[in-house]
Amino acid sequence: MKIGVIGLGSMGKRRLRLLAEFFPEIILIGVDSRKDRQEEVKKSFNIKTFESLQEAVKEGQIGAVCICTSPISHESIILESLRIGLHVFTEINLLNNYYEEAIQLAKEKKLHLYLSSTFLHRREIKLFEKAIQQDPKVTYRYHVGQYLPDWHPWESYKDFFVANKKTNGCREIFAIELPWISKVFGEIKSFELQKQKISKLDIDYPDNYALIVKHESGIIGTLNVNILSRVAKRDLDIIGEKTQISWDGSPDGLYQWDEDTKKMVKKDLYTGYIDNKNYSNTIIEDAYLEEIKEYVALLKGETKITVYSFEKDKAIIELINQFEEDL
Predict the structure, then answer these.
(1) What is the 3-class SS of 27-68, one letter each residue?
(2) Over the stretch 139-174, which tens digit does the pLDDT of each residue have?
(3) 111-121: pLDDT as tens digits
(4) Which 8-state DSSP code applies to residue 218?
(5) Measuring CA to CA, which residue among 149, 143, 153 is closest to residue 163?
(6) Do the beta carbons of residue 72 and residue 167 sit within 8 Å?
(7) From CA 129, how far away is CA 109, in angstroms rounded?
(8) Whole-prediction pTM value?
(9) Residue 66 main-chain phi, psi, to 5 deg
(10) Which of 69, 123, 70, 115 is nearest to 284 (CA)?
(11) How distant is the alpha carbon of residue 148 from its chain centre?
(12) Pick from 212, 222, 172: nearest CA to 324
């Protein structure tokens, strides 16, 4: 099996690292238009690299790709890959205007079309689901934010996709968080929203969103998304008569009310986990690995079930579009 990883920036190197370590039998090929990234990956992973997908396909029988480029470039790469006859794994897209065409192409050519939604693979999400199944009468408060210049400390925020209004920083946070929020609390039925720009960041979109959200389940919650927080934040409280859960987004920061002891008890869901010091402590590699495992299982014919899909993401992006109306 040969997999081409397209885009050799931080996400591309993450996918390469996990594939190389946990699936050494897979032959990996790197694709990036930047020579410096090609050279770095050649040295780090000892693999062949190419400037374009066309060159990589000519070289060998690539059967699948992982698309790790800027989201605004995904449309052309996804459609090109499907037309060539390649299975597709893609990082979050943020734009959905081409989804119908991609879904139809994949069906016609009997190809897998896999979309990342990393937090759906976190163990904490399963605990939330179970707790709400047992006590559905809850509310929640969730704040997620990180100062935009801290996202990629190695480069200016003006030099990657979050500078573009179409693929802006708040939009990406919503695209990461809404899939698991909708899975845990139910699809979003209605919302009230306030948004503003309060920073001096050189961007042309709001940097702060405050929402009151009502779900199909009847659950009401509050959601604050921003690109301002100097301390990277994922701060969740789920509250009910029988339920109290607090989570700071990290694998070591989950607490749940214990009725017997009348105390909040730390929940250890990971015997060990893979972290990356280049990112916030709320980001661990385990969930990224689970996505890779799911994709490889699809390619090997070991499963047909995935936790997320383009069809589900289409609805999520439509919701984000509503949040951004008038931008």
Answers:
(1) EEEEECCCHHHHHHHHHHHCCEEECCHHHHHHHCCCCEEEEC
(2) 999 999 999 999 999 999 999 999 999 999 999 999
(3) 999 999 999 99
(4) S
(5) 149
(6) yes
(7) 35
(8) 0.92
(9) -115, 120
(10) 123
(11) 17
(12) 172
